[in-house]
Amino acid sequence: MDEKTWHRRTQVPLMLASLAYLVAYSWRVIGGLEGAAHVVMTMIILGTWALFIIDYLVRLFLAKNRARWFRTHLGTLAIALIPVFRLVLLLQALTRVPGMRPSAGMRLRTQIMVYGAGAGVLLIYIASLAVLEAERLSTEANITTFGEAVWWSCVTITTTGYGDYFPVTIPGRLVGIGVMFSGVALAGIITATLASWILERATRNHDDAEPATRGQMRQLLEKMDALGPRSGEGDQTGS
Questions:
Q1: Least buried of 18, 40, 128, 131, by fewest C-beta within 10 Å?
Q2: What CATH topology corresponds to 96-224?
Q3: Largest CA distance in the chain
Q4: What pLDDT score does 239 carry?
Q5: What is the predicted pLDDT for the residue at 54?
Q6: Which residues does 79 contact at the CB level (< 8 Å), separation at least 6?
Q7: In the prediction, which pLDDT does 92 show?
Q8: Is 56 left (phi over 0), alpha (psi -120 to 50) or beta?
Q9: Are 169 and 141 in contact (CB under 8 A)?
Q10: Residues spanned by CATH 1.10.287.70 within the chain?
Q11: What separation, in Å, do the N-terminal and C-terminal C-alpha atoms of the chain show?
Q12: What is the structure's pLDDT at 98?
């Protein structure tokens, strides 16, 4: 079995495992579970997490060029570390507009916007759960409800930083660092995508003002080389 076959056969089971992970983690934190219920939810979380780690290691082992596969599948590594991000792939249907044939650039920008928005929403939700779980046991905590945790996550990921709610524990602050860096990255990606779209709209119907790319020059030279021998043969025939 090769890596592509393994990936195709495990897509649906891992999607269900990602959903189970999200439900179990949400139930454990928001429900404030204790005792046996807490243990059961923790076992589900660890079990589904182990499935993603195993899937990643198996795909890496089955890859023909493991170093290249590792470099080109960093998103798979991120999903293995945070399984709920696999749910972002469910948004693939939103990247396809019926009856339209967008260009490659437009298709890529649409995917970036849709997946970026989905990842941002999931990140806010998971960060809210994580910071609430880390902070609720501290006597000095000011993030004690899920609503306060969501507000803090939204403020942090947008780099606004009101300062009305903030983590006081080390795990909570580590979550905050991750949310801040992720927010900066998402903002940069979305800004670059919008700038690319605006530039394409501004240069539409003005192709004569655009410089030729190396690929276009290479194609032109190849066509000229292909016509050269034919023209020579034609001259010899005529003579």
A1: 40
A2: Helix Hairpins (1.10.287)
A3: 100
A4: 45
A5: 93
A6: 52, 56, 85, 86
A7: 65
A8: alpha
A9: yes
A10: 96-224
A11: 62
A12: 52
- Which token pair is 40? 């059961």
pLDDT along the chain (239 residues), means of 10: 86 90 92 88 93 92 89 86 80 57 65 78 91 89 91 89 87 91 82 72 58 68 71 50
35-62 and 3-30 helices cross at what angle (nearest 10)?
160
